[in-house]
Amino acid sequence: MRSYNAARRLFSFLESTSWCLVVFGVITVGLMLFSQNQVSQWGMVAGIAVLGVGAFMAVVGLLGVAQAQIGRAGVDSAEYSQQMLQIARDQLEISRQSLSGNANGKTTFATNVETKSTKGIESASYEKPDAQPSAQSDPLHRMQYKGKSITIEDETYLYDGLSFETRDAVEAHIDALTAPKLPGVRKSETA
Fold this sequence. Notes:
The chain has 191 residues and is of the alpha+beta class. It has four helices and four strands. It has helices at residues 5-34, 41-103, 109-118, 167-178; strands spanning 140-145, 148-153, 156-159, 162-164.
C-alpha cells in the first residue's frame, strides 16, 4: 500500500506554522491596543496600520489551519480508500479460490449434506407442526389467548358459552371484547 507519511508531515508543518501566524497576529493586535503610543498624527496612522496587519495575519493563519486540516482529511480519505480497496481485492481472491476449488472436485458443506442425506441420514424438517390439536387424541383441550381460556371440543372452539368454528374467529371475538373503548363513541343499537 502507498504511504502518505510525507503528505501528513507537510500538513502538520503547515498547520503548525499557521497556528504560529495566528498567535503572532493576535499578539501584534494586543500589543497595539494596549501600548502607549504618541498621540501624534503619524503615531496613530502607524498604530492603525500595525493593527490591521496583525488582524490580517491572524485571519490568514486561521485560513491556513483550516486548509491544513482539509488536506489532512483528504490524505486520511485516500488511505482509507486504499484499505477498502485492498479488502475488496482480498475478498475477490477468496471468492475466486472457492469457485475454482469447487470446480476441481473439492467438496463443500452443501455437497457433504446431500451425500449424507442420500445415505440414509434424515435431514431436518422445516414444516410447521399442526397448531390445532386433533380431536381423536384429546377430545377436550384448553388454550389461552390474551389471558382468556378457550376450550377446544370436537374441532369447535368454545369461549364464554359461545361456539366458534375456527381459531381465528374466537380470537377476533376476544380482540373485539378486549379492544380499548374510545371516549365519546357509543355502540349503535340495532332493532
